[in-house]
Amino acid sequence: MTADGLKGRAILLCVSGSIAAYKACEVARLLVKAGARVRVAMTRSAVRFVSPLTFQALTGAAVSSDLFHSQQELTAGHIAQADAADLIVVAPATAHLLGAARLGLADDVVLAALLAARGPVLFAPAMNERMWAHAAVQENVRVLRERGARFVGPNAGEMAEAGHVGMGRLAEPEEILAAVRAALGPRDLTGKKVVITAGPTREHLDPVRFLSNPSSGKMGFAIAEAACDRGAEVVLISGPVALTDPPHARVVRVVTAEEMLAVTRREAAGAHVLVMAAAVADQRAEKRATHKVSKKPGAETVSLVRTEDILLTLAAEWERTPSRPIVVGFAAETERVIERAKEKLSRKRMDLIVANDVSRNDAGFGTEENAATILDQGGGAEEISRVKKRVLADRVLDRVVLLIAKRA
Ligand code: PMT
After folding, report:
1. Residue of 213, 215, 218 best suited for mutating to test ligand 1, as the one with most atoms within 8 Å of CB
2. Is the entire prediction scored with pTM above 0.85?
């Protein structure tokens, strides 16, 4: 989505009382620059950090900070503001604000607007790292997510308090802008079922040992989030990862390649799109020991067999059916990346393949960002330099949308 995607969109930027409130000024500036119509609401404590006048100057609009403002409330200002907004952005969102929003309290303009809101809400939390880690805050975040709220950040780094380092810094203004764009993005996958696999599989040798790989699931989860944002019905089939379920996707957790094949076969039947971002283990133990295997003197051997290739198996099965989903695969390579990806694209009968060079340590497995080349059946190659996985996810889905249109 380009900067034009925000042109004319109404954003209610809600600011709560944190030292990071000054960064909300930059968020307001970037939103205005991108063409959004920005109104600002501030909590009582926010105005102690930044003056409403600053936001008024940046947005050219009156700022609300008083629930009992006789003029604004003549027209139930807090409800009207929530109604008029295409998106409410709370940046920074303090621990107190998150707790109060979860409880549905409404004793200031920001909380009242949040309670009245019927559209999307994006929280950008900022607080001390111990507060962020507290079970109460984490539970509030979980509940708000379950109710459909989105989150950007917090990020790791130095806190305002000297010597404190950890997770709790407000996301950078550019990241908040990207999250706003994502929340207001096109709904061009509405009515489409998109099945996505993510993460590694684990192939157990015995109950406590397994073969696997470093996939964190971040790439597949980013695609699932992007597809949800674009209106798709999303089924996310994930191997063992430590990520929170995207709120609008149906998530099926699996462990082994065999389980992933079975669930993918079931879910992909009748789906419009299958994206295989999972790093499926290629080998498993020929025999899985029922009990923990004891150490023995001398050399130890384990006999491995190949796991079934999910894409190859399904491609063969779909030859006998009238329709098959659009298939996007990923290739994790350490050498001759494009050449090998091309070979997989044709052998596994995919429509697109996303070739990753996983020998880099700033992209691929486990990182927040990825760099890739999207290859298609017509010989086209779109190179994407290092970007957030979410950005790559949208670029892949842009291509999927074009393929769906071609098929129609
Ligand atoms: O999870 P992250 O930490 O975010 O990392 C992302 C990633 C690097 C894992 C991801 O972007 C990626 O590259 N995933 C595919 C990794 C992989 O298994 O590549 P491959 O070249 O071995 O397989 C090619 C394709 O066949 C893949 O779409 C894979 O899902 C599929 N496959 C592989 C093996 C198998 N038994 N069955 C399959 O269907």
Report:
1. 215
2. no
